[in-house]
Design a protein that fits this description.
Elements lengths: L1 H6 L6 E5 L11 H11 L2 E5 L18 E5 L9 E6 L4 E6 L5 H21 L1 H4 L3
Parallel strand pairs: 1-2, 2-3
Antiparallel strand pairs: 3-4, 4-5
Length: 129
C-alpha cells in the first residue's frame, strides 16, 4: 500500500490492479486500495478475470469503480468479456475482434450460454433467486 501511495500523484486519474494472479496466487486487498483511491479522488479498476470464479466480489460493497472479466475463464469463447461500471451500475458484455466468420458465428451462438454462466456466479444474479 505504501508503494502504491508513493506512486500516486495529483496527475493520477486511474489505478488498475489485478485482483488475483493465476500464476503465483496473490490476491489484492481491494477494500484498502479502493479506500486509498477514493481518498485521493482517483478511479479504481480491477481485472478480476482470473479470480471472479474462485472468490466472491460484491461490487455493491467493494469500493471499485470498474471491474473487468473474460469469458475464457468459464470456458466461454475467446473475445467475450464483461465489465461493471459503478457510475452506471450496469454490467456490459463486450465482443472482441474475430479472424474469421466462423469465429464470429461461434461467439454469437454461444453468447447466451456465457450470459447464463455469468448470472449463475454473479452476486447480482443471486438477488433475483
Amino acid at each position: 500500500m505504501e508503494a502504491l501511495e508513493k506512486l500516486m500523484t495529483e496527475e493520477t486519474i486511474l489505478v488498475s490492479i489485478q485482483l488475483g494472479n493465476q500464476e503465483i496466487g496473490t490476491v489484492q486487498d481491494l477494500e484498502k486500495i479502493g479506500a486509498l483511491c477514493r481518498g485521493k479522488g482517483v478511479l479504481f479498476h480491477t481485472d478480476a478475470t482470473h479470480s471472479f470464479t474462485r472468490m466472491p466480489l460484491d461490487v455493491r460493497k467493494v469500493p471499485v469503480d470498474l471491474v473487468t472479466v473474460s469469458a475464457h475463464t468459464i470456458h466461454g469463447p475467446k473475445g467475450i468479456g464483461g465489465d461493471h461500471e459503478r457510475a452506471h451500475g450496469s454490467i456490459r458484455l463486450t465482443l472482441g475482434r474475430f479472424n474469421t466468420m466462423d469465429e464470429a458465428v461461434f461467439v454469437v451462438e454461444t453468447l447466451n450460454k456465457v450470459v447464463g454462466n455469468l448470472r449463475k456466479i454473479s452476486p447480482l444474479g443471486k438477488e433475483k433467486e
